[in-house]
Amino acid sequence: MKFNKTIILAAVVLGLPYVAYPQAFVEAPADSISAHMVTAPPATPLPSVWTFDNCIEWATANNTDIRRTMLNILQARQDVLAAKDAWLPTVGFSTNQSFTNYPSPEAGRKGNAYGSSYNIGASWTVWEGNARKYRQESAKILELQQALAGDDIIKQLKLGILESYLNILYAGEAVTIARQTLEVSTSQAERMKKLMEAGKNSKVEYAQIESQRAQDAYNLTQAESNYESSKMALKKILELGLDYNLDIAEVAFPDSDVMAVLPDRNQVYQLASQWLPTLKSNDLSKEIYANDVKIAKAGNKPSIDLTGSLGTGYTSGGKGWGNQMGHNFNENVGVNLNVPIFDANSTKRAVAKAKLAEMEYDLDRKNLLDDLSQTIESLYIDATNARAKYVSGLSQLEAVKLNDDLVNRQFELGLVNPLDLLSAHNNLLNARLELLQTKYMAILANKTINYYATQEVSLN
After folding, report:
1. Would you say 303 and 129 are in contact if contact means Cβ atoms under 8 Å apart?
2. How far apart, in whole angstroms, are the C-alpha atoms of residue 289 and residue 282?
3. With contact defined as beta carbons under 8 Å apart, do 185 and 421 qualify?
4. pLDDT digits over 242-282, tens only?
5. pTM score of the predicted model
């Protein structure tokens, strides 16, 4: 992904709210990220109704952790430039101004003397075992690792939004079920009240039905509270204010989404192991460890430095300042060769430690792959259990509905007591909620598996 540097510069200078946020940091070079992007106001206006894609776009543009990653990338870029600058020579100017007092001067010599010297010196390291080269390579790798860390944040952000969005949809449907259940129990309570007033039912029977209506009213309140809590969780991820009223777009999931054919788990594992940012970052660590070994070994190699200087000076008591400055002017060029003979084994120990650190790569990679394997295995177990439970739940719900209808008709004819009615009522409610929960568990597992396989996450 490339950005127009002229537009970015103009935006910074003029204070325009232009912000181009990378969807994947490894595709965006550090010179395409500006400090303005770290502190810029929201890049897009708030939608009135949030789709899943709206949530992803807003979060990737405004999430604090992503902005912090941009800052880390910019800092890593400075480390790369600093490593590159190590190839440049150093040039400096120095001067010394002194005043000397002679309490017992020799004959013909003044008791006080003033002296000054001026020097411009330069030094350039010609060779130092290629340590600068390896440090520059490692700095570039660390910059890329910062970008991969940003991609991992985006990955976690997308999965978090997926789970939160589905939780809101689930909670919203649970509210609908609770409201429909309350309507049924309210109708039953009103009918029982009329029958009680007509002397056909007792107050005890009416109280039992009324108690169920009150419980269903509480269930609706609790469902609405869970719905608001689910929205609050998504608002936290999107970093919206607590007072913001978040409305999300409704999404209908057919049975085909629940029963979608899953890709082979081994194939998903192989695909995920190739693109997951944490694994790619760990692979880069191996190169850094290798460079650390080379840098440590450079301690055994000679170093060559070129030096040069221009200098002059003046001492009071002699000829004039201008005369002395001209006659004392000197030029110096030198070559310094430093050959290490024995450094108390410090280089040897540094090499040994660097090689031990290099072994961490294999251990870290094994842990990461084990974690990935367990994650994918768990997702497949969840998906398989959920879809099996969903199929069973559909049959169970059908049976419970038939039983509920039958009990209601029998109750109207006076063939069953209120307790049987309440039992059928609660069985139907529990079956509907359990099926709903199983449905969204299956969808979440399916969508997450698809994300690991394709890097794409969508509700459509």
Report:
1. yes
2. 11
3. no
4. 788 999 999 989 888 899 899 999 999 999 999 999 999 99
5. 0.82
